[in-house]
User: Fold these one by one.
Assistant:
Number 1:
Amino acid sequence: MSSYDESLIPNAPRRQKVSRFRIAAWVLIPLAAILFQVYVRRFAEFLGYLELPLLVTVYFSLMRRQPVGGALIGALIGLAQDSLSQHPLGMFGIVKTLVGYFAASISMRFDVDNHALRFILSFFFFLFHQFFFWVLTQALLGQSLDVPIPQSIIFAFLNAVVAVPLFIILDRLKTEER
């Protein structure tokens, strides 16, 4: 439909800007985030609170603006993270699939280029990730996992603080928008 035709339909959906990235960005950024998560934690324990694979999943899902694409991004990043972690295969895959799906769904409703909204979403999705990881550990593995709620809230805040400049840097890697 042309723009003239869309203006005649009162409840017509508007076209969303879908960000484009080079193939190298799709591969290297999540890989760098996963390697950071696995190896930097061994050398600098004070950076152990950062969940960069989660932040990259949220960013790419928000920018892609397609729930199925966000779920696929989350699944791939989560399974890659599972393969390098000590957790059972699939735990991060399932949780990051949910995060990717819901982040992309939210991005269809809101303008996610706003830094304050990105901060709030990063904070929320960190807590969402922690909650569903806890639920899956209880339900699928039958293991008891302690969740220190005040510490999780502080870590969510710190991840959100890191997410805003990270998202600004990743915004510079976009190639084109339509």
Number 2:
Amino acid sequence: MKIDSKAIKELAALLNETGLSEIEVADGDQAIRVAKGGATVVQGYTPAASPVNMNSDPTTPQPASMTSDTVAHNHPGAVTSPMVGTVYLQGEPGTPPFVKKGDTVKAGDTLVIIEAMKVMNPIKAEKGGTVTQILVSDGQPVEYADVLMVIE
């Protein structure tokens, strides 16, 4: 396997920029995980079902993904982040958001954009319905499997 040192450097810079302690990007069956203290390249990657809290100190504040409404995480209409990055609710600054609470969407509609490694990734609705909750704000860092919104 060829190790992409440029990608590792970009991920490390993104860690510092966002204040995250770990970031992972997958492409097919390969993934690169960069954490404070090192980098790992993994073949045969299988993503985890949910984020794991590695912090055992209960007095330390948890990231938003660990403290947001548990009902939303278990909701069948939860739209989760497929990657680590920065979420944007509109295509360009000053333009209307892709969706608002109460909007009706259909499968394939763009819900948000997640920027990862300077690439804008549109996140599309997998099914139609009504947006009942938006759990992220514009410009917020998100992690893999964070709930972005709920569509019923």
